[in-house]
User: Which sequence fits this backbone?
């Protein structure tokens, strides 16, 4: 089985749609994906993801299934540097999260006090259980950390969604703390991440990443590097985001 996770194009967050650049990115993405056979497509209900998906779906002539659980991961926490305010779970200053050893393990990251204050655990489990339900319906049933193969296949599933929730799903599939993925990886708008199953012993499968955050199709289309995925490289450069 092959899984594609695609981030939406450059967003107009205020209107939950795409910018002009985002629409160009979605078109370049569609040109890349049009020759990829897809057995099922799942789409976040948010406008920026749906508009990105539509550029591809209209070309390949299939419909996507809109799934509420694919919306951007929404479980705010009390970010340490913003006293009294709720902040995004997947956007911390490095000096606040890196000293906490619990954040580095898939087994302990939810045990950190800040994660217990809100509904992070239930939201994380909701996303993961819904993903597992989809995979089970296509022949791969979660069993501990791996998947029991009910029906081995080479089908392709595609998920059009968002950065934060994609990292949640990757953390579940690869058994990696999402804190490491949220803060250590960059998936630019309209980028493509691909995983495939490996069945080294009959009936037992795990997932392996072929590539992460690939933007070669955007480069091929002559589109500029999109920085709506990261922060400033050096503090003195105030043309890029600092927080």
Assistant:
């Amino acid at each position: 089985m092959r899984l594609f996770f695609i981030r939406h194009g450059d967003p107009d967050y205020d209107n939950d749609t795409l910018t002009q650049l985002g629409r160009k990115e979605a078109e370049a993405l569609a040109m890349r994906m049009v020759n990829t056979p897809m057995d099922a497509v799942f789409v976040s209900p948010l406008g920026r993801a749906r508009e990105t998906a539509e550029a591809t779906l209209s070309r390949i002539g299939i419909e996507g299934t809109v799934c509420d659980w694919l919306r951007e991961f929404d479980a705010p926490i009390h970010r340490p540097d913003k006293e009294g305010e709720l902040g995004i779970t997947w956007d911390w200053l490095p000096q606040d999260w890196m000293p906490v050893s619990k954040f580095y393990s898939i087994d302990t990251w939810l045990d950190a006090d800040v994660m217990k204050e809100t509904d992070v655990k239930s939201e994380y489990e909701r996303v993961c259980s819904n993903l597992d339900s989809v995979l089970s319906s296509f022949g791969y049933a979660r069993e501990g950390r791996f998947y029991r193969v009910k029906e081995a296949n080479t089908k392709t599933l595609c998920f059009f969604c968002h950065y934060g929730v994609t990292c949640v799903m990757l953390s579940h599939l690869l058994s990696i703390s999402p804190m490491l993925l949220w803060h250590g990886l960059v998936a630019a708008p309209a980028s493509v991440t691909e995983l495939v199953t490996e069945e080294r012993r009959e009936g037992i499968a795990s997932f392996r990443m072929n590539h992460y955050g690939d933007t070669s199709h955007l480069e091929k289309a002559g589109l500029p590097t999109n920085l709506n995925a990261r922060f400033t490289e050096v503090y003195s450069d105030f043309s890029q985001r600092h927080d």
Observations:
- DSSP finds eight helices and ten strands in the chain.
- The longest strand covers residues 204-214.
- The helical segments are 20-33, 47-60, 94-97, 113-116, 120-137, 163-174, 178-184, 216-220.
